[in-house]
Amino acid sequence: MVTVTPAPASADRKPDEPAAAPARPGRRQRIRAGRALYLLLLPGVLYFLVFHYGALFGNVLAFQDYVPFLGLRDSAWVGFTHFERMFGDPLFWSAVGNTVLIALLQLIFFFPAPLALALLLHSIVGDTIRRFVQSVVYLPHFLSWVIVVALFQHMLGGAGVVNGWLADLGVGGIQVIGDPDLYKPLVVAQVIWKECGWATIIFLAALANVDEQMYEAAAIDGASWWRRLWHVTLPAIRPVIILLLVLRLGEFLSIGFEQFFLQRQSVGAEAGEVLDTFVYYTGFAAGDFGYAAAVGLFKGVIGVALIYAANRVAHRFGEQGIYKS
Amino acid sequence: MSRYAYPAWQGRPSLVVRTAKIIALAVIVALVIFPLWAVVSTSLADPQQVIDNGGWVIWPSQWDAGAYREILDGGIVTRALLVSAGITAVGTTLSLTCTIGLAYALSRPRLYGGKPLLLLVLFTFLFPPGMVPLFLVVNGVGLFDQYAALVLPFLINVFNLVVMRGFFQSIPEELLEAARLDGAGEFAMLRRIVLPLSKAVIAVVGLFYAVAYWNRFFEAIIYFNDQTKWPIGTVLRQYVTGGAALAEGGEGTVSSPQSIQMAVVVLATLPIVCVYPFLQRYFVKGVLTGALKS
Questions:
Q1: Which H or E element spans position B115?
Q2: pTM, to two decimals
């Protein structure tokens, strides 16, 4: 491919520099020197090429009338038909609506929760107690959604602990699991239970970096606990709060799949369908692969656009934003 | 009450504030621990007590491991546990090997083509492959009904890779330079210098991978026709949706199935709870190095 290969630069420089150490080795030398490294990175790069870029290329089936027997190569091209159908599909818009609503609820109720918990934990001076509470609240992050859903059913289900207590008290039971109206609060509560503790880690690190002298100065000026929180703590960790908020906005449509996949059936599609489960049910359950891929691609493109926009917003706030760019 | 070192400017908070904080923390801790406890005690309770109580037990009048004996008797749960253990062990080993290799190579500043490769990898983080195209690829490379379908598509996690690369970059270049002068090749340097220095980050990333493999359940549903190959998460899901169906019925027909169901939950949770205390001290550090980089 490369036809013009200039003479090695070292040939010209030889008089000036020691021959053993050229200032900048040529391309071939650098590739030769890195042989072992290329061997090391080969499996990883192959993985990304096959399972990420291969799948990325596989998105062309969003423009095809995909027939498994024919495969990608021989299936008929249908252009933007799937996308047109998508925009006219009330089930799709219902899934979008549920996704956006759950994401909004998460933003309002889930986002501030770790901040509050981090402030509480940070205000505990006793090291042992704080460590203990931290190890307890981090734990649910490592449990799978299957386990979390099972726990919630055991606690709140029709034959669950809470309903059992209510019955003992002579109060009628509440049906939380399986009620379409309570589904959205339920899934937000589950996210808070599972991830709130884990999400405190970054806030706690930010709080630990707040300058002690600022508190001292504020205290000498007679600032109360609330004033110190408002005028010292929150401004000091503002960059972290904004960064996390922006990241959250960038992932607005990615509210997760497994949690909703596990529970959609108990409330029905109207209340429980989100974009990811919509892709699953149209693609795998109904066999409409091309259409499902179109919806998936649409979500991916919107996702990239959101991340890009969120990053721009972060820059406007004077923050570093997401890695690179 | 022991006396903690409050900063001089702060003063000891009032009794009301302290009590409120203690209550708040106790409630939070209870909210996490109590459901886990309720599951364990239901799984270990006398079946008759579970039935009498309507499907749950907080404190067993009589401990009984019958539910465990039943499901560990070589049935589908036993097999699922073995499948999960195998996938977790093999997957974590493969993932760590490939992640270390890629992270180390990409952390070397002199690697020709390193930058574009890094961008190639990071881009996948922005644009995840869709569920349907990934399914076609996994089938296309012949992984249908293969255990490898639960491992290979998830071999490297970009976040873990970035964490590891960041750590490798923080190793002083002089150390490697000295080894290079002694005639060590890249493999020798990796084995004798980089890896021993990176135990903490390897432990953290290994834990993340292991937990992810252990918790994987959905892929088995779409990739496996053969239900005997299901890992524990997929089997547990079967029990969970079964429980959901019973709850919807509203009738109190739930009996010792509850003990069985809860025993499966316990078995699926146990490995995580067991490794957790050992790795806990590492992961805050590990997450933060990664979070700061990304």
A1: helix B114-126
A2: 0.87
